[in-house]
């Protein structure tokens, strides 16, 4: 019954879009998913993964194997080397990437299903609950329980928490996307400052940002980027004991504490970088100055927030010395920030055994080392992989200890299995308050309304 409902739903989606496309022939409407990053590239849609011991790897014999091509829906066009590593391990399986190109992934799944060429695995572009409720993804629990690779690795605490709902493991991370504070070391030296230690504090962060600010030279402590409220602000709330999870969520991810007095004071703290310190420009002021401060690679700002997606551009094009630091230390802890992007096995796949091999392959050492080479985190606990950070060309000459510390302390961005997450206005309201003229008093009623809504939705879900 589940497959019939899913097929009917998928067919209805295709018919709806056929009507829309017919009515709008000649139009071209592309939805962009990226955002401006510290290094000048668009942030990736997140994804995540993890390694395994070589002895536990499953056999890869070609004997009596029919060739299989897996259709993999993904944003990334940079996985070709990873596909080759997978094919080397499982020579009868080839990966065919189905690009997203700004199209909602549910539409892509529906189109391929209706054409009789269903996709096998996919990255996820919205909440996993919707995919589960529509019967589009398989519960991975039975696959994981018998997989030799996954049974032989050690996962961090809470590894599956953000991708489990109603006791079903709906996805695994494709890539563990880490974040750090990017540092302009030349600007530090120009102002007589040394590189801060890895156990620096939020007070250090603010003090140094003020010392780097010289409006006459067009230089400022912080890059004008939304990531400071998106990533740093809710991380600081955890570091100071004001929230249990990122995006101001409580311990069991059922309610937001964004409306608490302590979190509101955290918001005021970052707002003062703009209104009092002058070390962070508002959106209007940044535009007035030609948008130079919006991009860390211009060399005019001291700190930015970046992840693996900014590294290639920085390594190739930055004309100043840069490095990374972990997020600062708060009153009770020093958490970092990471994104797990879901990788799911589609219920309509005709090659589920082979498709799950692609999922479990993400946790082999060869896959994990390749991802570390790209600037991502290892997704499992393994001494060999921890040591590999010091060997990879990606981090030669940089603050490797900061990269390792950021990995060890990382908190995982929640959301994909929280009911009504798309209606939780934590991002836009903070952007308006920090970088615009938003009313801080709106936090309380908006948070109260969402807390009520998410509980109601949770009660209706089976």
UniProtKB/TrEMBL annotation:
Q: What sections of the protein cross the membrane?
A: none
Q: Does the keyword Lyase apply?
A: no
Q: Where is the signal peptide?
A: 1-25
Q: Which SUPFAM superfamilies match?
A: Periplasmic binding protein-like II
Record key words, sorted: Signal, Transport
As for subcellular location, the record says: Cell envelope
Q: Is Transport one of the keywords UniProt gives this record?
A: yes
List where Low complexity composition bias occurs: 39-61
Q: Which domain of life is it from?
A: Bacteria
Q: Under the cellular component aspect of Gene Ontology, which terms does the record hold?
A: cell envelope
Looking up InterPro entries in the UniProt record yields: Bact_solute-bd_prot1 (IPR050490), SBP (IPR006059)
Query: Which intervals of the chain are annotated as region Disordered?
Result: 30-64
Xref: Pfam families: SBP_bac_1
Q: Which family is it part of?
A: Belongs to the bacterial solute-binding protein 1 family.
The protein's name is ABC-type glycerol-3-phosphate transport system substrate-binding protein
Q: Lineage from the top down? A: Bacteria, Bacillati, Bacillota, Bacilli, Bacillales
């Amino acid at each position: 019954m589940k497959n019939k409902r899913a097929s009917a739903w998928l067919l209805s989606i295709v018919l709806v879009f056929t009507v829309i496309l017919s009515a709008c022939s000649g139009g071209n409407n592309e939805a962009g998913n990226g955002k401006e990053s510290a290094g000048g590239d668009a942030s990736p849609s997140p994804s995540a993964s993890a390694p395994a011991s070589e002895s536990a790897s499953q056999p890869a014999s070609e004997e009596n194997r029919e060739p299989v091509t897996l259709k993999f829906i993904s944003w990334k066009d940079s996985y070709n080397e990873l596909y080759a590593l997978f094919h080397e391990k499982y020579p009868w399986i080839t990966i065919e990437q189905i690009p997203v190109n700004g199209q909602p992934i549910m539409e892509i799944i529906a189109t391929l299903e209706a054409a009789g060429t269903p996709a096998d695995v996919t990255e996820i572009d919205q909440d996993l609950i919707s995919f589960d409720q529509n019967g589009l993804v398989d519960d991975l629990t039975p696959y994981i329980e018998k997989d030799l690779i996954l049974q032989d690795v050690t996962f961090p605490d809470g590894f599956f928490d953000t991708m489990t709902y109603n006791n079903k493991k709906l996805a695994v991370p494709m890539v563990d996307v880490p974040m750090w504070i990017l540092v302009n070391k030349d600007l530090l030296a120009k102002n007589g400052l040394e590189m801060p230690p890895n156990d620096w504090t939020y007070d250090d962060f603010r003090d140094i940002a003020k010392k780097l600010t010289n409006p006459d030279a067009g230089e400022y402590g912080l890059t004008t980027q939304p990531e400071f409220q998106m990533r740093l602000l809710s991380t600081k709330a955890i570091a100071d004991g004001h929230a249990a999870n990122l995006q101001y969520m409580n311990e069991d991810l059922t309610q937001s504490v964004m409306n608490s007095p302590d979190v509101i004071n955290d918001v005021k703290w970052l707002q003062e970088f703009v209104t009092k310190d002058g070390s962070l420009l508002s959106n209007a002021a940044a535009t007035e100055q030609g948008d130079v401060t919006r991009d860390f690679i211009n060399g005019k700002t001291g700190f930015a927030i970046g992840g693996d997606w900014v590294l290639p551009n920085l390594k190739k094009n930055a004309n100043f010395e840069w490095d990374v630091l972990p997020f600062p230390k708060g009153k009770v802890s020093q958490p970092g920030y990471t994104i797990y992007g879901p990788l799911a096995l589609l219920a309509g796949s005709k090659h589920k055994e082979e498709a799950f091999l692609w999922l479990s392959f993400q946790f082999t050492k060869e896959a994990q080392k390749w991802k570390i080479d790209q600037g991502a985190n290892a997704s499992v606990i393994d001494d060999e992989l921890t040591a590999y950070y010091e060997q990879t060309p990606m981090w030669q000459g940089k603050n490797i200890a900061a990269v390792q510390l950021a990995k060890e302390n990382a908190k995982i961005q929640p959301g994909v299995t929280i009911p009504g997450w798309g209606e939780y206005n934590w991002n836009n309201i903070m952007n308006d308050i920090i970088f615009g003229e938003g009313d801080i008093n709106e936090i309380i009623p908006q948070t109260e309304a969402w807390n009520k809504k998410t509980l109601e939705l949770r009660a209706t879900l089976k």
